[in-house]
């Protein structure tokens, strides 16, 4: 089973920036990483008038767009899949999955928090909180890292999830 780590936090806390830095450090160390970004508001990958859009409009339930370097799948679904369902359905040949945007889930989490936001943490140790990444030390019964300490966070991920 591929380990899953969820990066959670409030809007504009810096989740995406942290994930991008962690991906770079994990790849530098030789790991293959997949990401899942959840967007409650939906998104468009298939644009009106394009061939794949026309296929979907004609009734195709799944459309695969392939090139020599990338593949994208556009699939109509009946429900909002949880992280594990998405991993089981779509992700192969990686060492770690990083997810963003699934605030409540059972997987290990790193929560991003900024003091300027003056907001409480979303997660607790009981919610499988592995660590906090913040611009000021926070006490929650788990390690608290400086938000820019990517190496320290990846060391923790290696020790807890990848070894």
Brief rundown of the structure:
The chain contains 4 helices and 8 strands; from the N terminus they run E-H-E-H-E-E-H-E-E-E-E-H. The chain has helices at 15-28, 51-57, 83-90, 150-162, and strands spanning 4-9, 33-37, 62-66, 71-75, 96-100, 109-113, 129-134, 144-146.
Explain this structure.
The structure is a single chain. The chain is α/β, with parallel strands linked by helices and 163 residues long. It has a single domain (4-44, 77-162), classed as 3-Layer(aba) Sandwich (Rossmann fold). It has helices at residues 15-28, 51-57, 83-90, 150-162, and strands spanning 4-9, 33-37, 62-66, 71-75, 96-100, 109-113, 129-134, 144-146. It has a six-stranded parallel beta sheet, with helices on both faces. Strand 3 (62-66) and strand 4 (71-75) form a beta hairpin. The longest helix has 14 residues, at 15-28. The relative contact order is 0.24. The mean pLDDT is 91.
